[in-house]
Amino acid sequence: MHHHHKHCDELFADAEAAAAEKDWAHAKMSLGAFHGDLETHFRTEEEVLFPAFEAATGMTGGPTQMMRYEHAQMRELVARMEEAMREQDGEAFAGDAETLLILMQQHNMKEENILYPMIDRSLAGQAGSLGPVLRERLASA
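Predicted structure:
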């Protein structure tokens, strides 16, 4: 999952750079790729990883609930960036992109340093069955 964070970060940076250059065609392509891969990442966590963790630990209102909340915030920011891109509003795009970048950095740090290690410990016995499912879903992105 950590490697997929980096992949999404690269797509995001490309979209942000294209919008800053007012290359709206490239920004649209890059933002579309970022949005698709980000959504795949979120759905993989929300539909596979988080439910497995919650079933193993009984924790349904803790860290996974916060991650889902942050996913919703990021989805809203991406939607606002898409609207700014359609309007070719570089200032609005840059403002929402800056907010999204900060949120993604904080979110990824929490996942990578806190939640993923908890998941690794809790689901160690399921690595053989869960790992291929996660890899397959992310590979399609």
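Summary: The chain has one domain: 2-139.
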